[in-house]
Amino acid sequence: MAENCFHCGQDIAKERISFDEKVFCCNGCKSVYEILNLNNLGNFYELNKRSGIRPDESSSQFDYLDTPEIFEKVTDFSEGNTSLVTFKIPVIHCSSCIWLLESLQTLNKNINYSQVNFTRKTVQISFNQNELKLSDLAKFLTNLGYKPVINLETAERKEETLDKTLLIKLAIAGFAFGNGMFFSYPEYAAEVMGTSDFWFDKYKNLFRFIMFLLATPVVFYSASDYFKSAWFGLKNKIVNIDVPIVLGILMLYGRSIYEVLTDYGAGYFDTLCGLLFFMLLGKLFQKRTYSALSYDRDYKSFYPIAVTKIDFHGKQENILLSELKVGDRILVRNQEIIPVDSILINGEGNIDNSFITGESASVPKKAGDKIFAGGKQTGSALELEVIKTVNQSYLTQLWNKEAFKKHETGLDTLTNHISKYFTFTILGITLIAGIYWIRVDFEKMFQVVAAILIIACPCALALSAPFTFGHVMRILGRNKFYVKDTLTIEKISKIGTLVFDKTGTITHQKKADIVFEGTEIQEFDLKNIKSLVKNSNHPLSKSLYEFLEIEDEHFPVEHFLEIPGKGYEAEVRGKTYRIGSAKLVGQESKNLETAVYISGNNEYLGKFIFKNEYRENLNSLFKKLHGYNIHILSGDNSSEENQLKSMIPNPQGMAFNQSPEDKLNYIKNLQEKGQKVAMLGDGLNDAGALKQSNVGIAVADDTNSFTPSSDVIMSGEKITELDKYLNYSKDAMTIVKMTFAISLMYNVIGVSFAVLGKVSPLFAAILMPISSISVVVFTSVATWWRSSKYFSIRK
């Protein structure tokens, strides 16, 4: 009896290695088993039986990867000790592969993290380049059985727009289908007319043999993906949806060979080629559809807001980020994300790359240094020169860095629940129908069984949710509500509590009535203060910058330090200033007012008192949100509490003088009461609360307030239309459920006709892409129709 290797599951043909009461086919598999168990990763073998990949025993040389030019081309990001690289690993095939490759940091201390994209068969790895060479990392993966494929194509890291292999398979199936119909025509004609032709009788066996030759590569090459998928599923004790499809293909192919060999008939070779041609056509349509749904990877989806462009004279202009060109100069303030790969021109760079690398250590930068997109400036404002446009920068991959890690949701559970029993139900129906038709019409039984197995493929069901949500994402984005991923839309539809930050969210960021109170500030100080407030992206700082009518001479700001929730301090032209709360400058706030206090060299200079201007139509918005629990949070005092109560019909809660930590805890308390919370803030002091909430919505007006903590970025001018976005997300859920119903209805009706023998396998194959197209058409029309109720239609 043949034995199987405990690690890779392959038959042990040559050497048999016993270790730890288990047998292995080679030293490579034994070594991987030892490594996993030494690091407490034995769960790898519990996820899937025969889950391992046999290590490549050839001497793989990856030393060329350490050449600086090649290293720079292959890696995604490299700065300080940390580098990021994305390897193509075609042998990834099951959940245990994903689990192992995402546990690499446990096996090697110099690996920070790793993330698998199962669809693209890639793994992105963050590693310490000073301790672990890129070549050694590649060898390490090879020794585990996951040899990376590295060539010019993978190094270019271009997005796949077309699956060339699938196109070749489709072309072969189409060629065989067309020619098969040509060679089978005389036999069909003779059968229809009831006559016999001398030349046809003489050459019919040749024609049948040619049809067999045409169909064979279609079955074993064009349909190979179905066979592989079914085999991997069965090997891991899973009966996936490709199993009945493969049974149908083999049944038609085997029956056709039998008929030709016994001279019973011509078989179904032409039908089989047509069947696979239309199935592959449907598969191509589905792949192109999923590719079109990659809205979350389009940089325009998460770079919606303008960035501050400056000219050589220091004049500032807000432009769309997508309009930036190489050579432009931009201003990046404290706590803002670097939007494009740039060169530092002016300022003290202190770049936090945690968003890219996962490590919180900051990297100092000086003039002339390159700064990667995705880093966050902590300190004074920087003047940068753009060296790559936004669509070429590495940041385009980052916001959805973990988007491929699917979280289970209500819809996922429903789909999985249906799929779990779907195949067994279809196989049961097929068995019963087969038994019936064997007794009634043995020849027709093959067509009936094949038709049932083919028509039941749930392609339309698989397209329902992703296409609907993807389409909704695009419509929301066109209306300045930029959603991070499709999962967020489902979360929005379940929200019952809305928490609004006050300053910069429901108030205008730059519009305010400002009054100065204190001793007259000298021109020297005013110019310094204007240079200083330019460095902060807080709404009050921006308002103050616009209010100060003195010329900004762009004096260098040194030792910039921001104290969250209180203000900031820095040195300008040798004088140290503090700008922020009363407590920060050693004063006491006697009145309930919103004010910015200023001191220079510990001497109190005065305060700027703000009377916030609320956004238009807020009263109308809060009335439309009558079904939600409304809460207001603010870092300011309660001076405007009465005004807020007059705008909000029944506020469930208001809290003032809130620090960033207070806001986060407020959200936690609501969630502990079972509430689904959406937090709307400006993304600055609200980062913790945005991340804690079920849905974090960053509200931005005219700067790139992109934040890793948010699930949505929306334009500040659209906040009074919040009810439309919430209602449209709920409508999207209804549309998804309707598409589920349509998909299931198609299967019920189609299988019913197939059981009755009213549908041929070829017609079933034609119906597959038609059903998918019908779902796509329905969801497109439905999402467009519902959107027209809320938004103006834009192209």
Describe the structure.
- With 795 residues, this protein is α+β, with helices and mostly antiparallel strands.
- Among the domains are: 63-156, 2-Layer Sandwich (Alpha-Beta Plaits); 168-292; 300-397, Calcium-transporting ATPase, cytoplasmic transduction domain A (Distorted Sandwich); 476-505 and 615-726, HAD superfamily/HAD-like (Rossmann fold), CATH 3.40.50.
- Helices cover 46% and strands 19% of the residues.
- It is built from 27 helices and 28 strands.
- A seven-stranded mixed β-sheet has the order 16-28-27-26-17-24-25. A six-stranded antiparallel β-sheet has the order 8-7-9-15-10-13, with no helix packed on it. It has a six-stranded antiparallel β-sheet with strand order 18-23-22-21-20-19.
- The radius of gyration is 32 Å and the shape is elongated.
Q: Quick summary of this structure?
A:
The chain has 27 helices and 28 strands. It has about 800 residues and is α+β, with helices and mostly antiparallel strands. The strands form six sheets. Strands 16-28-27-26-17-24-25 form a seven-stranded mixed beta sheet. Strands 8-7-9-15-10-13 form a six-stranded antiparallel beta sheet, with no helix packed on it.
Q: Would you spell out the secondary-structure blueprint of this structure?
A:
Blueprint: E1 17-19, E2 22-24, H1 27-38, H2 44-47, H3 68-74, E3 75-79, E4 82-88, H4 95-101, H5 104-107, E5 111-117, E6 122-128, H6 134-143, H7 152-156, H8 164-193, H9 198-222, H10 224-235, H11 242-261, H12 269-292, H13 299-302, E7 306-310, E8 316-320, E9 329-332, E10 342-346, E11 349-352, H14 354-357, E12 362-365, E13 370-371, E14 376-377, E15 382-386, H15 410-440, H16 442-455, H17 459-478, E16 481-483, H18 486-493, E17 497-501, H19 502-506, E18 507-517, H20 523-533, H21 539-547, E19 557-563, E20 567-572, E21 575-580, E22 594-600, E23 603-614, H22 618-624, E24 629-633, H23 641-647, E25 653-655, H24 660-672, E26 677-681, H25 687-692, E27 695-700, E28 712-715, H26 722-755, H27 761-790
Parallel strand pairs: 17-24, 17-26, 24-25, 26-27, 27-28
Antiparallel strand pairs: 1-2, 3-4, 4-6, 5-6, 7-8, 7-9, 9-15, 10-13, 10-15, 11-12, 11-14, 16-28, 18-23, 19-20, 20-21, 21-22, 22-23
Protein name: Heavy metal translocating P-type ATPase metal-binding domain-containing protein
Organism: Chryseobacterium suipulveris
Domain P-type ATPase A: 312-399
